[in-house]
Each structure stands twice: as C-alpha cells, then as structure tokens.
Amino acid sequence: MLVKWIRCTVVDRRGFERGQRKWAGLLGEPGFRGQGGGWSRGRPDVAHLFGFWESRAFYDSFMARSHDRLAAAQFGTYRNIQVRLFEHRFDVKVGFRPQFTDADVVRIAHCRVRPERMEHFTLMQEKVWNPAMAGSPGMLRGVFGEAPGPEFLVLSMWNSVAEHGKYRAERVERLALRAQTEADIAAITGDVVAMEPSWTV
Fold it and tell me: 3 vs 13, 50, 163, 183, CA distance in Å?
C-alpha cells in the first residue's frame, strides 16, 4: 500500500474547504483505498491530507489521468504545498484500514533517520513503540511507512485529543530512552491533526 501525505498552508479557507469536497471524485478510481484530513491543532492555517492507494502503479495512473481535473477546484487557495509518498511497511496495531470516520485526531511523526541506524530504528518501532501505542486506550490504528532518504512516517489515529495527550504525557519520554530514538533520528517533525469529517473520501 502507498501512503500519500500532503501538507499545505491555506490562504483561502472557505475556497479550500469547498474544493476539498470535489475530491469525492476519487471514489471511482482504480486502486484508491481512502482519503482523509484536517487542520493542524498547532497552526490553524495548515492543512494535512492522507491518501491511501493499493500500489504505486495505481497512484501513478491516477496522477497521469484524473488528478489535475480534481485539483483545479483548489487552485490558488493554498501555498507551500509539500507532498510525500511512503510505502507501507507495517501496521501500528493490527488490521489497519484507511478509515477516518471514528478518528477525532491523527498524529503524524515524520522522521529522517541516520542511514546506519535504519535497521535499529525500524526494529524499535516494531518492538517498543508499536506495542506501547497499540496498548494505549483511545489509539485506534496506524501505519508505519518508508520512503527513500531514509525517511519514515508514523501515522496514528486516536478517538480523542485527551487520550493522545495522556499517552504523550505518560509514556513518550520513557519509550524514547528505551528505544534510543535520539541516536537513530537526524530530524523529526510532527503534528496533531483535528480531522474534518467532510474531507473523508
């Protein structure tokens, strides 16, 4: 599965939201699995979108055919767009599906990892972070993806901001020490996204 992450700064909020509804046109696309998104809780003018495709081939075919027609409705409503693609490596908690209706917030961590630490980072994700997140009340499901760079995306869905906040406060520092995260990561950025139900496709 291919995971697409889009981050942009919105300059015309109403126009952007209107255009966002046009993405319902994705539903007939071969290989399309789901899309959702919302606003950054830290920066109200930043929007994040997450799209899921069965494979890179299906995604490339969509980009060559239908993408520009659907995207035209949002032209001029945003700037500083960043688009990144990640190959699904494994689920965070079992049985990931690209469904957003039950998620109140999505947490994203975008990590640039030191090349010689890639193997260790991935192992720690599987053995330390994954079980801790999966065992947290309110954590619904998530996905761990990889891109050349080496870059990784950890995307987790939560049923409330409060539950995600508890996990952060009680566990993150302790887990980071155990996983030697600082030694693995060259740079990390993240955000907490308040999901917009009307953007879900």
Answer: 25, 7, 25, 26
Name the residue among 156, 114, 112 with its Cα closest to residue 132. 156
Structure tokens that stand for 197 in this block: 């139900």
Please give the structure tokens belonging to residue 139.
Answer: 């954590």
pLDDT at 67: 96
Using CA atoms, how far apart are residues 105 and 41, in angstroms rounded to an integer? 9
Please say whether the beta carbons of 158 and 168 come within 8 A: no
Q: How large is the average pLDDT for residues 66-90? A: 96
Burial 39-51 (b: 16+ CB within 10 A, else e): bbeeeeebbbbbb
Q: How far apart are CA 149 and CA 112, in angstroms?
A: 7
Kindly report the average pLDDT of the chain as a whole number.
Answer: 94
Structure tokens at 42: 């830290």
Q: How many CB atoms lie within 10 A of CB 195?
A: 22
CA angle 197, 198, 201 (to 5 degrees): 90
Nearby residues of 7 by Cβ (< 8 Å), 6 or more positions away: 46, 47, 48, 81, 82, 191
The model's pTM? 0.94
In angstroms, the CA 151 to CA 3 distance is: 13
User: Residue 169 above 80 pLDDT?
Assistant: no
